[in-house]
Amino acid sequence: MSTNLLYIKNMVCPRCVEAVHTLLERAGYKTKAVTLGTAELDATTPVDPETVAPLLEAAGFELLRGRAEQLTEQIKTLLADYLDHLRTARSPLTTSAFLTERLAATYSHLSKVFSRTAHLTIEKYLIRLKIEHVKELLSYGELTLNQIADQMRYSSGQHLSNQFRQVTGHSVSEFRRQSLPARLSLDSL
Fold it and tell me: What is the pTM of this model?
């Protein structure tokens, strides 16, 4: 039995997965699986992109139609997984090895496609992703900057602090003093 696979932008968490699943089911589509960035539909419910796209957009998602856009979203999802890999692996893979292993494509190809569609490099996107995670950890107030730096595989707290200032325009201390620290949603990176 064949299926229809939709690639969907702005799915960044389990609540997004549930929202897309519910939206598609209510619209009469039979889903086989919904994961971050994708929805696999049963072949008995043919997909009309012109019908599905507005439904997704009304809920803050976007149907990706081009292969480059689809690959870029896959890379973004994998980079979020890579952060977990960094924190938990004894000897973590490099970003390029991690992506090429999972996508079976050369890093050069992945980098070119990502840069063209996302308008920034994979490395810069990963830095933004890491800094957003650092903001989350800082807002909890449970870890020191050096502990966060170790967890996120920075060479030192100073290196993290410098990169934090470059990306946010504020020091870590300024961020901590804010009563409601500004954080970005992952889909806006």
Answer: 0.73
